């Protein structure tokens, strides 16, 4: 109850009654204290199924290439002591971002992969009917990789039959 001193106009009471809020919170706390142990006890040993990963048959999976170079000492990205890509290093191409390949292996693997996708789609005529089924090549180039390494990767995948080549880049923070 508010006590008003002085004689004057009535002002609204600005105190908040928190008693109902505390009552509701205590009731919810009691409910959760009872419900959580009951829920935990009712769950027996949970068995999560283990499924083998399979390649999608309806979704086109684009070919991902990473183009980098060795460091000045000739070490690659997975080697211990790798100092980072160097403009003077040898070209390194990673097929699907994991498997290091040479130029000849890149051509052969890209051709076999594209041939498998075209065959699965029903041949060249069938895949041309739905252009979204034609896979693309996405290249992620290291900032220190010379253009000749990237151009060599583009040449090999286009020679293998991939019509579209795109680049993946990291956005630059405009604030510095």
Mean pLDDT: 80
Q: Strand sequence of the main sheet, in spatial order? A: 3-2-1-4-5
Number of separate helices: 4
Largest sheet, strands/sense/barrel: 5 strands, mixed
Strand content: 5-15%
Query: Count of DSSP E strands?
Result: 5
Rg result: 32 Å
SSE succession? HEEEHHEHE
Regions with little confidence, pLDDT below 50 for 5+ residues: none
Structural class: alpha/beta
Overall helicity: 25-40%
Distance between the termini: 58 Å
Structural write-up:
The protein is an alpha/beta fold. The chain has 4 helices and 5 strands. Strands 3-2-1-4-5 form a 5-stranded mixed β-sheet, with helices on one face. Belongs to the ExbD/TolR family. Keywords: Cell membrane, Membrane, Protein transport, Transmembrane, Transmembrane helix, Transport. This is Biopolymer transporter ExbD.
Offer a few descriptive terms.
ExbD; 5-stranded mixed β-sheet; membrane; 176 residues; alpha/beta; transmembrane; single chain; protein transport; 13% strand; transport
Which helices and strands appear, and what pairs or packs with what?
Layout: H1 19-42, E1 63-69, E2 91-95, E3 99-101, H2 103-121, H3 124-129, E4 137-141, H4 147-159, E5 165-167
Parallel strand pairs: 1-4, 4-5
Antiparallel strand pairs: 1-2, 2-3
Helix pairs in contact: 2-4
């Amino acid at each position: 109850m508010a006590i008003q001193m002085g004689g004057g106009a009535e002002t609204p009471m600005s105190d908040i009654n928190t008693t109902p809020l505390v009552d509701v919170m205590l009731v919810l706390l009691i409910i959760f204290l009872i419900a959580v142990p009951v829920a935990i006890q009712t769950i027996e040993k949970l068995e999560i199924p283990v499924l083998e990963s399979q390649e999608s048959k309806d979704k086109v999976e684009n070919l991902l290439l990473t183009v980098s170079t060795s460091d000045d000492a000739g070490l690659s990205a997975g080697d211990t002591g790798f100092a980072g890509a160097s403009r003077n290093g040898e070209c390194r191409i990673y097929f699907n971002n994991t498997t290091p390949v040479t130029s000849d292996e890149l051509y052969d693997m890209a051709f076999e992969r594209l041939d498998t996708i075209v065959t699965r789609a029903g041949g060249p005529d069938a895949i041309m009917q739905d252009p979204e089924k034609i896979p693309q090549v996405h290249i992620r180039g290291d900032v220190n990789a010379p253009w000749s390494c990237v151009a060599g990767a583009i040449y090999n995948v286009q020679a293998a039959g991939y019509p579209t080549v795109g680049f993946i880049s990291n956005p630059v923070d405009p604030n510095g």
